[in-house]
């Protein structure tokens, strides 16, 4: 075996293994085509952040998005002193919508562990939360680790709790784990790594392979078989939730929000953040240089599917993108 994670197979894993057919690649996003397959969200922040999401044109012109270091760069403005209404940032989502599959993201850098930042790599379906949300990377402020979380409408529960997201959406079901290099500065210190998320009718499972460890060779060979990877960091499965009913047609998102319903709400409870400004908005407005490291550098995102997986292609005209 080419990797060092401890194997903790359970009978459930064996069951899932027996049911699986091989994966074939469906979409591969990287420095050659990322901005044709992803579109920019430039509306108001649904989580009420102090953020001004840019259009593709604006982001490109301001060098907040483009290709850098052979990867895809998505950043936050680190120049404007006291921007009105929010600091410029980026949020992109796939035009295609995926139902089930294996999502493998190779990420070299993510937004730093900085007061005010709320960074996420996640997916969701239309009519939130009816078609579900899968949070693969998500954290705020000075976090150095994050949790895998699902949000759904009523009637979906796993061992980790009820995934139902009423009201402000803060509820959900999260899987605690012992990995320590999942987010922010801790992730960047090791050059990032590969996040793999598998979504089948039976389970949603997560793995993280740090850059400094050995990676499963079948990932580089583009013939991934999660059943050879050892125990996932988190598994959501069982009779309490029909995954097929609660998760459907997801667009995949990378975004860097600032303040808002999570980062802003807990800003004051972090003593280091609280000592620098009286509100999250004030801090973000007054300290542009602190957001220099609040960027994503994405080597690739590859989506694999088996029979029964589905992808709906958006018919809109691809945008040209150079930066
Ligand atoms: C980059 O994406 C293109 C288009 O999907 C694909 O043909 C190519 O193999 C990818 N490159 C790598 C290194 O994965
Ligand atoms: C992330 O930081 C917030 C405070 O800003 C804290 O409430 C939360 O527990 C932290 N989470 C992790 C996983 O460190």
TrEMBL record:
Residues annotated as domain GH16: 26-271
Signal peptide stretch: 1-21
Cross-referenced SUPFAM superfamilies: Concanavalin A-like lectins/glucanases
GO biological process: glucan catabolic process
Name of one Pfam family that matches: GH16_XgeA
Record keywords, A-Z: Signal
Molecular function GO labels: hydrolase activity, hydrolyzing O-glycosyl compounds
InterPro entries assigned to the protein according to its UniProt record, in alphabetical order: Beta-glucanase-like (IPR000757), ConA-like_dom_sf (IPR013320), Glycosyl_Hydrlase_16 (IPR050546)
Keyword presence, Ribosomal protein: no
Listed name of the protein: GH16 domain-containing protein
Organism, as annotated: Monosporascus ibericus
Origin organism lineage: Eukaryota, Fungi, Dikarya, Ascomycota, Pezizomycotina
